[in-house]
Amino acid sequence: MSYFGFLALFLGIPILALAFAVWRDRRHGRRLSSALSAHGPAAVIFLHVVVALLYTTPWDNYLVATGVWWYDPELVTGVTLGWVPLEEYVFFVVQPIFTGLWLLFAGRRLSRAGRERAFEARPALRKWTVLAAGLIWFAAVAALAGRWQSGTYLGLELGWALPPIMLQLAFGADILWHHRRLVVTALLPPTLYLAAADAVAIGAGTWTIDPAQSLSVYLGGVLPVEEFVFFLLTNTLIVFGVTLALSQESVARLPQRLVHGNRRRLPTPGPGRRTMNESG
Questions:
Q1: Where are the beta strands (DSSP E) in the chain?
Q2: pLDDT tens digits, 157-192
Q3: Cα dihedral across residues 110, 116, 117, 118: positive or negative
Q4: What are phi and psi of 134, to 5 degrees?
Q5: What is the secondary structure of 155-220 as a DSSP string?
Q6: Buried b (16+ CB within 10 A) or exposed e, 29-66
Q7: What is the pTM for the complete model shown?
Q8: Cβ(76)–Cβ(86) under 8 Å?
Q9: Separation CA 235–CA 94 (nearest Å)
């Protein structure tokens, strides 16, 4: 299976289906709850695509350069940027779109099925979740510093992904807890789906994880456990980020000078124009 074949089959088709479903929902007036209407969803997802490209590119190049994973040169176009094939950069773009669209699709249904709950700020929750994530990050960095070879891939994943997750938790762990039904519903299905798709690609030889730099623990006899962790971490970044960006509670928590500055730059809705808060 070529890498672009994998992208078209496992991400291209689902993205088209989800985009159509989200468009149809909007046409029929099905929206996110008012608590998740702080910004336009399309702009929020686009921002996550940009961040994914910028933040993931140097890390993934390091993985390929050091042989943590490699790809079959016969199954890619041969166009590389740094050490990474073009197809991998396309994956950086389409994963946030896929997970973001799923969040919108699921969130609109949860909004109709659930009842709005009053938000309760929980500073202790923010503190303790950051502390827990920080301890895991410290252990991962210690494993890398101790040159634990079989823990290399896992350590690099945790060391790379946990700092921005800790920032998200420090800002809004209580906001994420308030929207926990959405977070869980948006996180688990894409993670399981992409992990299963990854197992197919590994079984087909599209790419390979170095057994010497991984734990050699295989889910279903095929998927290295680090690959499941990768999709769990990356989807966590996307789901946390999109949920926080859409949440009205996040806007209330921002410094007022930033909020007022953004509002001054927004256009005034004219007759027949939908406001940004109505675009969910």
A1: 69-71, 80-81, 84-85, 207-209, 218-219, 223-224
A2: 999 999 999 999 999 999 999 999 999 999 999 999
A3: positive
A4: -65, -35
A5: HHHHHHHHHHHHHHHHHHHHHHHHTHHHHHHHHHHHHHHHHHHHHHHHHTTSEEE-GGGS---EET
A6: ebbbbebbbbbbbeebbebbbebbeebbbeebbebbee
A7: 0.89
A8: yes
A9: 12
